[in-house]
Amino acid sequence: xxxxxxxxxxxxxxxxxxxxxxxxxxxxxxxxxxxxxxxxxxxxxxxxxxxxxxxxxxxxxxxxxxxxxxxxxxxxxxxxxxxxxxxxxxxxxxxxxxxxxxxxxxxxxxxxxxxxxxxxxxxxxxxxxxxxxxxxxxxxxxxxxxxxxxxxxxxxxxxxxxxxxxxxxxxxxxxxxxxxxxxxxxxxxxxxxxxxxxxxxxxxxxxxxxxxxxxxxxxxxxxxxxxxxxxxxxxxxxxxxxxxxxxxxxxxxxxxxxxxxxxxxxxxxxxxxxxxxxxxxxxxxxxxxxxxxxxxxxxxxxxxxxxxxxxxxxxxxxxxxxxxxxxxxxxxxxxxxxxxxxxxxxxxxxxxxxxxxxxxxxxxxxxxxxxxxxxxxxxxxxxxxxxxxxxxxxxxxxxxxxxxxxxxxxxxxx
Length: 414
Known about the structure:
Elements lengths: L1 H13 L9 H5 L13 H4 L9 E16 L4 H10 L4 H11 L2 E17 L2 E16 H9 L5 E4 L5 E18 L9 E28 L2 E28 L4 E16 L4 E12 L9 E9 L3 E4 L3 E9 L3 E10 L11 E8 L7 E6 L8 E10 L2 E10 L10 E11 L1
Helix pairs in contact: 1-4
């Protein structure tokens, strides 16, 4: 048990070193970035903010963000068990409670490939990676308590895997003033279109299982279907609006993932796993008749669809500090979106103009725990360098952290 917990913990905390995704600067504000974005990044957050007076360059690999999180394990819990040398019933109950139905893992990464903003017109490219997984608490119950219940069920909701990677080539146009009457504040409009190159997709489309025990022994039935695709193409669009309510306060709105999808045309495959066992006794486990079956099928071209997402943002920019707030609402579940609303807040302290200090907070949602971001930058026009990190489910990185996130950003512009 010690070795299992230790290896799982190392796996969870070491993944950031391997790896709407986010680039470096948005991560430094915990995602509260819609009204802060400018240059090439604005096409991913709010294309209305593409400014005709700005020119900037987004360099390959020099704007990167990575995050790994889970909802259960932290170093404090691991050390608690190791100090006692055993896991008590109280620890077992706490661990199951922490899982809240399933152990959920998430890994996000995005890095810049190229970007240039020539005034209100921009062209950029970036790489995205998104991995999500969930494992039912019933597996851990069996491991910790043994067969303590007559029946265990395993459903897709608590047992699933989704992995997606793709690159985009994005074009955008912004800083377009809407023809409103003079009595209304000026509102800018922008749009961006992303041509998507799918690299790989893997997803659990079916997961049904049951483990039942009675006088005739154990009975097991497990059905899993995995869908895989390699090589595809697609599109997603975004429209954005931004306006000033006064000299310091800006607000914005975007609708993302318009017509969002990737059509997979190569390496299309579906794998069916089936395990059945009947009348299995622990005393005669070696003689148990367990049927394992795996079938691979070639399938037709299929689409990974991204539900649309509504984003609202506000930025209050004063001389010494800027404050922002964002809310994100997806209209469906996917690798990139969640139907659970997510709030995020950010602040930048500008007492030293060449050394901006930033903090951020995100409430998280059903798949991602809350997180706090810290970062520092070095600004000497036309160059800006920023480094930052996030602590997942903990105010500061430490024994209670359930994941980490790292990011850096380097940009040049005038």
